[in-house]
Design brief:
Length: about 270
């Protein structure tokens, strides 16, 4: 099954390891990956709605429900029942208005215009059995344009500035995402990838937009982590052993000399 149209829940519940899984295993522990539970928070609903606003604006109004001002009282409960019956995303009034602003802003984006030029493949999964490890890997790009051979990933951030996003690349493993998505999408779908662009929407009043492309050093680091994490995953999978933190007492110190305020660290 190299390419598959499925919803997000089916993708994450199905076979294969994704970037988020590998990043959890790498940045935390294999135990966190194997036994962790996917979170569900109200702000995730805003993110889902924003993705629709950006990727498929034509179906936005039939996909979300405008709720009351806050999540309290009978009005919110009635809105929940309505949204559940119609299978829509329920947002507070303020979140709804912000998502509509994001839709309007997305319509002015030159990179999103390029992504839609000639048609785009939206939120479609690709699967591939990795040759080196024998592991089934999977990816689900937000958008791929076959004409321009570009993958576009949408990020909703509190701070969309270049400096803040650069920090988030390392914190959340977006450099790993770029190289893994490109690799698995090419091999799984048979489509070439010549560029990878992050489109960042800042959750502000009003929302703002920025587009970023990682440099070659970040991409190389992401690829190295991707391959190392995949090898570790294959090892854990084969042994059915998912270790957590080390059992022995570990000796640690402050991370940086700048954390010392009262004494001079030895060896400085």
């Amino acid at each position: 099954m190299p390419i598959k149209i499925e919803d997000d829940a089916s993708y994450h519940a199905g076979e294969g390891v994704s970037k988020s899984g590998l990043w959890t295993l790498w940045s935390k522990t294999p135990f966190h990956y194997r036994y962790g539970v996917r979170e569900s928070r109200p702000q995730f609903d805003v993110g889902k709605a924003a993705h629709i606003a950006i990727l498929e604006p034509e179906r936005l109004e039939t996909s979300i429900t405008r709720g009351p001002v806050d999540r309290r009282g009978n009005k919110w409960k009635e809105a929940q029942d309505f949204a559940e019956f119609h299978k829509t995303i329920l947002l507070t009034e303020g979140d709804f208005e912000q998502v509509m602003l994001i839709r309007d802003l997305a319509a002015t984006s030159s990179i999103l215009d390029t992504m839609r030029d000639g048609g785009a493949i939206v939120e479609t999964s690709a699967y591939h059995v990795d040759e080196e490890t024998g592991v089934l890997v999977k990816t689900r790009p937000d958008m791929y344009n076959p004409k321009h051979k570009i993958i576009c990933d949408i990020k909703n951030m509190a701070d969309g500035s270049a400096g803040a996003f650069s920090r988030d690349v390392a914190k959340f493993g977006y450099h790993v995402q770029e190289t893994m998505y490109s690799d698995v999408w090419e091999k799984g779908s048979g489509n070439e990838v010549e560029a990878f662009v992050f489109v960042v929407f800042e959750k502000s009043e009003p929302p703002m937009l920025a587009a970023y492309e990682l440099d070659s050093d970040a991409a190389k680091e992401g690829h190295a982590i991707y391959r190392a994490a995949l090898a570790k995953y294959a090892e854990c999978l084969k042994a059915d052993n998912w270790p957590g933190y080390p059992d022995e007492v570990q000796r640690i110190g402050l991370r940086s000399k700048w954390d010392f305020k009262m004494v001079e660290p030895e060896g400085e």
